[in-house]
Amino acid sequence: MLKNNNYNFADKIADLCYKHYSSIGKSGKPVKDKEWTLLSSIVKLNKNDNNLSIISLATGSKCIGSNSMSPDGIIINDSHAEVLARRCFLRYLYYHINLVKNGSSSDVLQLVKSNKINDSNDDDDDSIINEHYEIKSDITFHLFTSQVPCGDASVIPKISNNLSDSSKCNNYVDNDEDQSNACNKFNNFGESSDKKRKFINHDNIDSDNKKIKVNEILQDSSFKIINTPCYLSDSIGPVIVSDFNDIYRTGAKCIPNDPRQDTKGFGIDYQVTGAVRTKPGRGDPTLSVSCSDKIARWNAVGLQGALLSLLIKKPIYLSSIIIGGGGPYSEECLYRAVIERTKTDQRPDLLCSNLIFEMSKYSPENTSADRPSPAALMWTNIPERPIEVAVKGIRQGTTKKSKDKGSLRICKRELFKLFITLTDDLFINNSYKEVKLLSKDYQNNWSLVKQNLGAWTVKPDYLEFIVNKEEF
Ligand SMILES: [Zn+2]
Questions:
Q1: Among 78, 261, 388, 422, which residue has the fewest nearby CB atoms (within 10 Å)?
Q2: What whole-number distance in Å separates Cα of residue 470 and Cα of residue 452?
Q3: pLDDT tens, 242-290?
Q4: Residues 6 or more apart in contact with residue 168 via CB below 8 angstroms
């Protein structure tokens, strides 16, 4: 399904996510014509019957500053939609592990019989947990996000000073032999690849005879053709694009310990590519890295994170990343940001849809919106309390003083409690951080990936919290 029809697949996923958003009540949603937000979702595909279902869906674009972070794992630091959708995904996995542990069946994961005799040479500390789970082989996961993730994937060259052309996703091509190439692949101006490419302005291409013009250009040895065809909305053949002189910028800032820093020079020199960045926030700086950086991490070490790696040993990877329509998009920039930088072997399909999220800042239905919504909406596909709404990292309607009662089901502390319950209180006396470090394979992989990324934020040593038995 995926390989043969990526165009339909991207729109199908976008449509599914938007319809699901519409089906959820008003609470936590932006005020139309005043506010905008981003929407992200993790969608499950069952390859047996091609059935798609939404596992998690979230909106949000806020991130709290380092001074507001809590040492007890209650406040959600990063409320960008992609990050919340992934946390809801973790909650979904815990729910399904609990189902299987209690003898029910799950359509997404299954128990792996542990063989203690064969495991006897395994000195991995993970083996102190007897029961392991794995995702069923016919299940794949897909990340949808309504616009390109903040950070490196958002540093995109502008073509011909005209957003309506090739810096948008143009899937409308007649040639559908390989739809995955249909989105633009037009830039490589950074140092992230050894292939330096030169571009010509597509305004200079004779619209009646594009191929001849392109061939003429190819005679000039100083130009190289882009290895994957790039399509313009009104073209049917490969075109070399473009002499750009400016970029779309990200609000995320390079982290101080990264040697790559923005020069803030003119046009394309304003921002560097490939750098690890932190999210912008009101007031004091945030310590949360950009969504591009987090997605790069998930692509390299799995979505499940350190804790769940103790229960699900095989990393859970995304099979595709789908970007919604309306805003700037470059498949090549996305590739650089979420795959190339970590040197991972994983190759999720990178797709974009032309369907625009109705509450996006790019939506023609929401043109007067001039500010991001302060609220974040979270939905997880489980029966108990599937919807939550957050403001400033805690449940809407609770104050910072009563935050213990306002903790969200997807905060670190609540997810840790699920983990402790599922491991029969084996780790009740260990801190959150101690348990995460027991996941040795995951931590080793992550160390290598961090080296490849070149930098990462260093958070204060505050995640030493231990949960009390009375909290359950
Ligand atoms: Zn983001």
A1: 261
A2: 42
A3: 446 788 888 888 988 788 898 887 777 788 889 999 998 777 788 899 9
A4: 184, 325, 326, 327, 328, 329
Q: How far is the CA of 294 from the centre of ligand 1 (A)?
A: 9
Q: In Å, how far from its chain's centre is CA 469? A: 34
- Residue ranges of the alpha helices (H) in 177-311? 210-219, 291-301, 305-309
Amino acid at 77: N
Exposed / middle / buried, residue 174 (Cβ in 10 Å: 0-12, 13-18, 19+): exposed
**Inter-CA distances, 336 with 192, 247, 292, 361, 404, Å:** 7, 15, 10, 25, 40
> 55 CA to middle of ligand 1, Å?
20
pTM comes to: 0.81
Which tens digits make up the pLDDT trace of 237-254?
Answer: 333 334 467 888 888 889
What is the CA 52 to chain-centroid distance, rounded? 19
Ligand 1 centroid to Cα of residue 254, in Å, is 14
Which tens digit of pLDDT belongs to each residue from 166-176? 445 543 333 33
d(CA 408, CA 458): 24
